[in-house]
Amino acid sequence: MFAIKTTSAHDRHFQLLVAELDAFQSVLYPAESNHCLDLTTVAEDGLHCVIVTGDANQPVGCGAVLMQQDGSAELKRIYVRSAWRGKQLGEAIVQRLEKIAIAQGCDQARLETGNQQLAAIRLYENLGYRQCEAFPPYQPDPLSVFMMKPL
């Protein structure tokens, strides 16, 4: 059983999960292809974070959605600890973030992920995301996969 709740980018459990994600990605990609925005530097009125808790209220996953000036939303920092993968948590996180984006008036969700994260790419495709060109603030990167979905 798991629960998803909203949290702050400053929440220590959220930060711990993001640090695990950063460590995971640093093994897969060189520093110049790790597009890791420090969410604690983003104005909180345009950022919404969620954390997933499992047994004994332990943090097992996270994600965030960043509202953009153009009416779109960017999904950020979606991560599920390996022991909890395969339990539909990634889908639940993305769907919760999409609901938040819709409630904020966004008409499109976008994301950037790495080309080595095949399970993540499949997850996003199964949820209706399609590959697209790089979008601001990103530049094209052969190690990045850019995706979008109308909301």
Description:
The chain is of the alpha+beta class and 151 residues long. It is 27% helix and 31% strand. It is globular. It has a 7-stranded mixed sheet with strand order 1-2-3-4-5-7-6, sandwiched between helices. The chain has a domain of 104 residues: Aminopeptidase (3-Layer(aba) Sandwich), CATH 3.40.630. The two termini are 28 Å apart.
Keywords:
151 residues, alpha+beta, Aminopeptidase, seven-stranded mixed β-sheet, 3 helices, 27% helix
Task: Give the helices and strands, then pairings.
Elements: E1 3-7, H1 12-28, E2 47-53, E3 59-67, E4 72-80, H2 89-103, E5 108-114, H3 118-126, E6 130-132, E7 144-150
Parallel strand pairs: 4-5
Antiparallel strand pairs: 1-2, 2-3, 3-4, 5-7, 6-7
Main beta sheet strand tally, sense and closure: 7 strands, mixed
State the name of the first-level CATH class of the domain at 3-106: Alpha Beta
Average pLDDT confidence is: 93
Shape field: globular
Task: Indicate the CATH architecture of the domain at 3-106.
Answer: 3-Layer(aba) Sandwich
Class of secondary structure makeup = alpha+beta
- Low-confidence stretches are none
Radius of gyration: 14 Å
Q: What's the oligomerization state?
A: single chain
Order of helices and strands: EHEEEHEHEE
- State the helicity in percent bands: 25-40%
Distance between the termini: 28 Å
Total beta strands: 7
Strand content: 25-35%
Q: For the largest beta sheet, what order do the strands appear in spatially?
A: 1-2-3-4-5-7-6
CATH-defined topology of the domain at 3-106: Aminopeptidase
Contiguous helical run count: 3
